[in-house]
Amino acid sequence: MTYLAKPLFHHPALPTNALGYTHRDYEGTISTLCAGCGHDSVTAAIIEACFELSIAPHRVAKISGIGCSSKTPTYFLGNSHGFNSVHGRMPSVLTGANLANRDLIYLGVSGDGDSASIGFGQFAHALRRGVNMLYIVENNGVYGLTKGQFSATADRGSKSKRGVINTDNSIDLAAMALQLGATFVARSFSGDKTQLVPIIKAGLEHEGAAFLDVISPCVAFNNHAGSTKSFDYVREHNEAVNRLDVLSARAPITVDYAEGTIQIVEQHDGSHLVLRKIGADYDIHDRYAAMNFLQKHASQGQIVTGVLYIQDDPEDLHQHLKTVGTPLNALGERDLCPGAAALEKINASLR
């Protein structure tokens, strides 16, 4: 994998936060995703949120799985801790790291293919156990790295670039997070920076299992039939000496609309998303009302965005398990191996 480093030089008068850091201090390498990808907008929102919260980059541990979305941690917080795990296994790696050191801020980044299919069980157990983290899913409804097959979050009846109609019911990860007991659940759109940045900030500061589903359009699979500039047409009329793909640059999709209103967003392929932003009168503390609200508007073809649910007094995994206050990686041999007498006492309690 090639990493494109950004120049070290920057303007000396860049704005700084309370810690004296600039935006550049929260950036990573140059993105290699398709130009206009919604995931890059999510990256920019994470950078902005961490800058505004004045989080020291070394206090963050970013964990990811496999997929376009799981590449994005390379593009932000280059001076933080990071681990790119295998497909669908991000939640268990993050859980283990959290148990070993609760002093870090845990940011899990995944995709709909990574979390809603092979990692669905891991997604479920991390949330029901209340792991203290912000779990972000960059949701585009396709497997972007393997040429646009439907993911488990693709809507039934949606059409792929090949004209195939999806006949499977979709998995609503936000609805699942509510059912599983996540204590912070939200959904946003990658192009709505005004909404997305505050949600990320709230999720990072939430002490419990925080889940954020971000609808993030894929720009690579929007070729239309009949176009002489489409990939399919060129391949059919070209005798190539090697296999190359070129993706035309696309402008990022952005939106800005008021609370309580509906926004229809045209995608690069001509399809439309119907976004409904939660109004000020919405009760974010009623889990069951949130579930009903999601289902009601989903049946109308609307994607609800905003903070869906917050529990005021969340408990995390450490409280459930009554773990010691000292991080496991800071305990000495005497603490970890208390001796035969202590072991016998534990065994006796289990008889």
Secondary structure blueprint with pairings:
Layout: H1 38-53, E1 60-64, H2 68-71, E2 81-84, H3 90-100, E3 105-111, H4 112-118, H5 120-128, E4 133-139, E5 142-143, E6 149-150, H6 173-180, E7 184-189, H7 193-205, E8 209-215, H8 231-236, E9 262-266, E10 272-277, H9 287-298, E11 303-310, H10 317-321, H11 333-336, H12 340-350
Parallel strand pairs: 1-2, 1-3, 3-4, 4-8, 7-8, 10-11
Antiparallel strand pairs: 5-6, 7-11, 9-10
Helix pairs in contact: 1-7, 3-5, 4-5
Describe the structure.
The chain is of the alpha/beta class. It has helices spanning 38-53, 68-71, 90-100, 112-118, 120-128, 173-180, 193-205, 231-236, 287-298, 317-321, 333-336, 340-350, and strands at residues 60-64, 81-84, 105-111, 133-139, 142-143, 149-150, 184-189, 209-215, 262-266, 272-277, 303-310. The protein has a single domain (23-320), classed as Thiamin diphosphate (ThDP)-binding fold, Pyr/PP domains (Rossmann fold), CATH 3.40.50.970. It is built from 12 helices and 11 strands. Strands 2-1-3-4-8-7-11-10-9 form a 9-stranded mixed β-sheet, sandwiched between helices. A two-stranded antiparallel sheet has the order 5-6. The longest helix is centred in the N-terminal third of the chain and has 16 residues, at 38-53. The termini are far apart. The relative contact order is 0.12.
What gap, in angstroms, lies between the N and C termini?
53 Å
Helix-strand pattern, N to C?
Answer: HEHEHEHHEEEHEHEHEEHEHHH
What class do helices, strands and sheet pairing give?
A: alpha/beta
The counted number of beta strands is: 11
Low-confidence stretches: 222-248
The CATH class, by name, is Alpha Beta
Q: How helix-rich are the residues, as a percent range?
A: 25-40%
Instruction: Compute the CA-based radius of gyration.
Output: 22 Å
Count structural domains.
1
CATH topology: Rossmann fold
Question: Major sheet: size, sense and barrel closure?
Answer: 9 strands, mixed
- Indicate the overall shape: globular
CATH architecture descriptor: 3-Layer(aba) Sandwich
In round numbers, the mean pLDDT is: 83
* Beta fraction: 15-25%
Query: Strand sequence of the main sheet, in spatial order?
Result: 2-1-3-4-8-7-11-10-9
The CATH homologous superfamily corresponds to Thiamin diphosphate (ThDP)-binding fold, Pyr/PP domains
- SS field, number of helical segments: 12
